[in-house]
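Bench notes, bay 3.
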Amino acid sequence: MALAVLSLSGWPVAALSIGAGVYAVPPMLSGRAPQRRIARLEALAQWSRRLAEMMGASRGLEQALADSARIAPEEIRAPVSVLAERLNNHANTEQALRAFADELDDPIADLIACSLVLASRRRGPGTREALRLLADAVEHEVLVRRDVEAERAGLRTTLIVIVGSVIALSALFASSQTFAAPYGTALGQTVLAAVAALYGAGLWWMRKLSVLSTGARFLRTRPAAVVEGTER
C-alpha cells in the first residue's frame, strides 16, 4: 500500500503515513481484544466454581486441578490443559500455577492463581470457600467490564467516523492538482508530516480513552535458579 501511494503521488511522507496507518489503525478500531479478555474472565469464574465443587468430591488440590481440564470452558481450556499436564508430570505445584497465571496474563487470573498457591502451601480447609468467593468477585468484575466496554464502544465508533472522513477528504484533496501541487516540495512535505503527526496523536489519544485499564499483574514466574531449588 505504501509503495503504491509513493509511486502514484511521489510523496514519501504520504507513503510512510499510509503504511503506519494500515499497520496501527485497524487494531485501534477493533473491540475484539477487550471482548476476548472479558470472555476469558467469565470462563475463569466458571472454572473456579467447578474446581471448588471438584475439591469437595474427595480430591486433593493437584488432582482436582488435573481433572479440571476436562470441564474447563473453551476460552481457558488450553492453559488449564497445560497446567494439568504439568501436574500429571509431577511439576512443582506453585511454579505450575505461576506459569498458568503468566499464560493468562491478567491481574484477576493472578488472584485466582495466588489463592491456589496459598492453598498448596498451607493444605488447610477453606480453599473451596475461597474459590467460590473469588468466582463471585470475578463475575461481578465481568459485569462491570461489560458495562464499561459498552460505553467505550461509542468512542471507537467516533474513531471510525473520523478515520473514514480523513481518508475521504485526503483522497479528494490529493486528486486536485491545485491543492496538491504545493505538497510536492520539501516544505510541503514538512507541513504534511506535521499534519499527519497531529492526526496520529489525536487518534492515539482517543484510542487511549477507549481502552479499559485492567491494572497491573503481581504474580510472576520465579527465576529459573529459584525454581530448581524448590521442592514440591
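Next record in the batch:
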Amino acid sequence: MMTIGELASYAGVTVRAIRHYHAKGLLPEPERDHSGYRRYHAAAVVELIRIRTLAAAGVPLARVRELLRADAPDFAAAIAEIDNRLCAEIEERRQHRARIARLAAGESLALPPEVVEFLDHLRALGIDERIIEVERDGWIPLAARTPDRIPDLIARKREQIAHPQLIDFYRTLTQAINEPDNTSTLTTLADKTAAYLTHLAATHGDDYLGGDIDPALASLLDTLATETWPSARHLIALLHDRGWTGWTKIQRAAGD
C-alpha cells in the first residue's frame, strides 16, 4: 500500500493531477485508513500511467474513461482513430508553418501556393528581390479579385519565364532599377520589351497579351508598379513610342 504522494512519484504525475483524475471519475478513490489517509494498491500505478499516457497524447479526459473500459478490439480502433486525428492536426500545423515561412520571406498569406512557387522560381533564377516584390504586390489584388484565373495566369507566366528573352528582360530591369536616371538603360529595356511583345503576339495572337483583366483592376496594378518603381512611367511612354500601351493589360497602341 502507498500514499497519494508515493503513487504520484511512481506514476510521474503530481498529487494535484491524481485528485483531478479522481474528480473526473478516471481513477477510483480508495477508502481512508484508520489514520485518515488514502492508501493505494500497486495496480493504481499501472492505471494511473495509462491515464497519464492517454492524456499526454491529447486524448480528451472524457474519452480516456471510455478507452480504459474498452475491450482490446475497441481500444485498438479508438487508438487508430485518435492517431488519424493527430496526423491531420500535424498536417494542418505543417501548412501553418509553411504559410508563416512565406510571410517571413515577404510573401502574403493571401497568395495562393502556385503564386508563391512562381516567386520562389524567380528567386532561383537570380531575379532581383525588388522585382519579385513588385510581382508579389501585383499578384495579391489579382488573386483576391479573380482567384479562379490564377492557375491559368501562372501557367502562362511559367511558360514565358522559360524564354531567354524574358529572363534577359528581368536582368535589364534590374539594371534599370539600379540606375534610375540612366535613359540609355531604359531605352534598351524598352527595345527588348517591344521585341519580346512582338514575338509573343506573332506566336499567340494579340489577345494573349491583353487578356481579359478588368480595366479597373489593371489600372490598380499599373499604379502599384509605378508607385514602387517611378521609372516605369518613362518605360511605358517609351513602349508607346514602339507601338505598345499599358503595363498590366498590354495592347497595341492605337493606329498600329
